[in-house]
Design goal:
- By secondary structure, the protein is α+β, with helices and mostly antiparallel strands.
- Helices cover about 50% and strands about 20% of the residues.
- It has 23 helices and 20 strands.
- The model has no long low-confidence stretch (mean pLDDT about 80).
Length: about 750
């Protein structure tokens, strides 16, 4: 190790990076399933939450469904009603709340966890489902909600349900006062492995009930998919870099040990002459590798655990995680890395180390440092007969003298070029994605109603007047008004966030990937996560309710992205659901070159009840992916260059006699550098040709499997002739960068030092 400090450092660095990446990938994979399953099982969560129309089926008949074949356990029926809530009540967007009447939080199914306060046991009390992580705090207890019927409900507790069976709970007596027209049944089935089997189990349970009595159902698999949607979108990206890191580390370790064995023939012979057994000689080389491998693995595991918290926080941002502990890494993840990575490194080192096992002491001591006679001579003679400069022909022939070492080096270059290609493609795709809606380069101004800070003073101007004034200010090119409400959809217990827009029709010009923009009442669009988790597609119809009113809406388009609980609709739909309600937010699209700060100041001068800010042009997802890929591209490219460095360093040490002879007949230091660099530049070009298609395939694999984003084809097709040519040069650059330092060292070598060594 002391004689190979650089190689030891390279191995430790590669293993550290690989361990960190693999641990993050395993942590994401674990967090996408284990926390939800554990929390759901701990609460005996419902496999299916079903809603029924009580005007068509009686509670007694619903209760008898609990004894149907395939039903493991059931709870209910519970009365269910939809209650309107005002804007900013408990920091919500306003809209509706699905309330269920339940006597206690325990039971055979969906054991609700009480987080703060107590359960609602009397009329006038309500417990709210607090889905966010952390505690809501006792200061919010006592908050009042006035129902449309005139009753006032006081919040006496906050609870969490992994089944998402309701947004809030009241006592059965209070539910009777709300006059519910639907009931809820919670089922656990003996077979709940797939969505199809859950649907079949539910069909057997409700068989014989009046037609149309089942109004909707929600399964735990749908909730699990929503839980892990964003984490799953990062998983292919992180996993690919982890696999690349593992492959590079394996190649580098194999190359280093192989070179150490070849360059240490005399040392091996001396060890065997002193009495070392073949197995002990192999143990020497494995120990030399295991020390930096174990050190790098331990440091990589620590780094991965330190980074996992922030990474998981980003991956689960905006998701209903309930009581699932997504920030905790399962112990098996760290254990797998601590055991698996050193084992992989030792396995990669074992094959070249066995070469030392087979050598006899006499052969090892007598073996020369140069390649054996005749190896690569035919290629060398062929290149020598061309008109290429002699340093170039000699350099191009050198890789054929050590074919195994050459293949390992070229493989490292291929992986380096693959990483660069993948990173370049991801960066181009994510930049195009981050610029959606900003193709005109004009700034965006967000205008909110209400005073600064916590001041809720309404503006003096009316909604139409605000929009008219915003359009009249200098620099405005388009104005879009927005109203956000918390609505409900038929068959779903959890509310959805509905955005209603009017005005600037360029909103959907670049964000619709399938279908068209909504233009009339009863038309909605949503992101891929919303549609897939509800089994919706273009042309399907869904009932949306708000403020006691309902409309039947048709899905007419799919957005590039969107919250799993959010849909978008026209202002005409909003007028039917909440007539007379004004917009609360406006987005102004400025002409290119307009002064955004001056426009914002002009807006606030219009009315003290308006707040204006320049919209941030950045995109958190784009920044995360680009930064992450850039860091790992630099690391893996550096590691690939270090692999080339190790190869060239071994070659120059083995060819000291040849270099001395070439210098003695007139080769200049510059020609030595040219010959040495040329010996790997060709490998870099070939590695580039092989790595580019692999990088393109890896890029396509990542962008086609981002579950929360459906990227259009023009964002995926980012490859052009100039870019591909640059990728080819990347392979040459990796090779030259690694070869330059040992080439200059070889150029400074004197003939006297070579002869002295001989």
């Amino acid at each position: 190790m002391k004689r190979r400090r650089l190689q030891t450092f390279v191995i430790g660095l590669v293993v550290l990076c690989s361990t960190t990446t693999v641990l993050l990938a395993l942590a994401l994979l674990s967090a996408a399933s284990d926390p939800f399953d554990k929390a759901h099982a701990a609460q005996r969560g419902a496999h299916t939450v079903a809603a029924f129309d009580t005007t068509k089926v009686s509670p007694d008949r619903l209760a008898r469904t609990a004894r149907r074949p395939g039903v493991e356990a059931a709870a209910g029926p519970f009365g269910q009603a939809v209650v309107d809530i005002p804007k900013d009540w408990l920091w919500t967007a306003g809209g509706t709340l699905t309330v269920v009447g339940r006597a206690d939080p325990a039971g055979p199914v969906d054991r609700i966890e009480l987080l703060e306060g107590r359960w609602a046991t009397a009329p006038g009390e309500i417990v709210v489902n607090w889905s966010a992580q952390g505690s809501p705090g006792p200061e919010l207890l006592g908050t009042e909600l006035r129902t449309p019927g005139g009753a006032t409900l006081a919040v006496v507790g906050f609870a969490a349900s992994m089944s998402r069976s309701a947004s809030a709970w009241v006592s059965p007596e209070q539910m009777a006062a709300l006059h519910p027209t639907s009931a809820q049944m919670l089922y656990r089935f003996t077979d709940s492995s797939t969505e199809a089997r859950l649907n079949a189990s539910l069909a057997r349970a409700v068989k014989g009930l009046p037609e149309g009595s089942l109004t909707g159902a929600q399964t735990h698999l749908t909730l699990k998919q929503a839980f892990s949607a964003l984490a799953d979108s990062y998983l292919p990206f992180v996993t690919l870099f982890g696999v690349l890191g593992l492959l590079v580390s394996t190649l580098i370790v194999g190359n280093v040990v192989s070179g150490a064995v070849v360059s240490g023939y005399r040392h091996i012979g001396v060890l065997k002459a002193l009495g070392f057994t073949p197995n002990q000689v192999v143990a020497v080389y494995l120990t030399m590798i295991s020390v930096p491998a174990v050190t790098g693995c331990a440091l990589g595991t620590l780094a991965g655990n330190a980074l996992a918290g922030p990474v998981l926080k980003v991956a689960f941002t905006g998701i209903d995680v309930g009581r699932a502990a997504v920030g905790d890494i399962s112990p098996w993840v760290s254990a797998a890395c601590l055991v698996g990575m050193p084992a992989l490194v030792l396995l990669a080192a074992l094959i070249p180390a066995l070469r030392a096992h087979r050598l006899s002491a006499a052969r090892a001591i007598s073996a020369g440092g140069a390649p054996r006679t005749g190896r690569g001579l035919r290629v060398q003679r062929l290149l020598g007969s061309t008109r290429l400069p002699r340093p170039v022909s000699l350099g191009l022939g050198q890789p054929f003298a050590r074919p195994a070492r050459t293949l390992l080096t070229m493989a490292a270059i291929v992986l380096g070029v693959t990483t660069v290609t993948l990173s370049t493609g991801l960066t181009s795709t994510m930049v195009a994605y981050g610029n959606v809606g900003r193709e005109d380069t004009g700034a965006r101004i967000h205008v909110m109603t209400g005073g600064p800070g916590d001041d809720r003073t309404p503006p003096r101007l009316s909604d139409p007047q605000i929009e008219e004034r915003l359009r009249s200010l200098p620099g405005a090119e388009g104005v879009r008004a927005r109203a956000l409400s918390q609505a409900n959809t038929a068959g779903q217990t959890q509310p959805v966030f509905a955005d209603f827009y009017r005005g600037d029709d360029s909103l959907y010009e670049h964000t619709i990937v399938e279908g068209r923009a909504p233009v009339a009442a009863g038309e909605i669009v949503a992101g891929p996560a919303f549609l897939s988790q509800r089994g919706l597609k273009l042309g399907d119809r869904v009932t949306v309710g708000l403020n006691g009113r309902r409309i039947t809406a048709t899905v007419v388009g799919q957005l590039i992205e969107g919250n799993a609980r959010a849909l978008e609709a026209t202002w005409e739909s909003f007028a039917r659901l909440a007539p007379g309600t004004p917009a609360t937010e406006y987005t102004v699209r400025l002409t290119p070159g307009a002064d955004a700060r001056a426009y914002a100041e002009a807006v606030e001068a219009l009315d003290p009840g308006l707040r204006a800010s320049v919209a941030d042009s950045g995109n958190a997802g784009t920044t995360t992916v680009v930064t992450f890929s850039a860091v790992f591209t630099v690391l893996l490219s550096l590691v690939a260059s270090l692999g080339v460095f190790n190869t060239v360093l071994l070659n120059t040490r083995e060819r000291r006699r040849d270099l001395g002879m070439l210098k003695s007949i007139g080769m200049t230091p510059r020609q030595v550098v040219a010959m040495t660099v040329t010996s790997v530049a060709g490998l870099g070009a070939v590695g580039g040709l092989l790595g580019i298609p692999l990088g393109i395939v890896a890029h396509r694999l990542v962008v086609d499997n981002v579950g929360v984003v459906d990227l259009p084809e023009h964002m995926k097709d980012v490859w052009h002739v100039t870019g591909l040519a640059a990728m080819l040069l990347a392979g040459v650059a990796i090779a030259v960068l690694g070869a330059l330092a040992p080439a200059r060292s070889a150029a400074r070598m004197t003939i006297a030092s070579v002869l002295h060594a001989e």
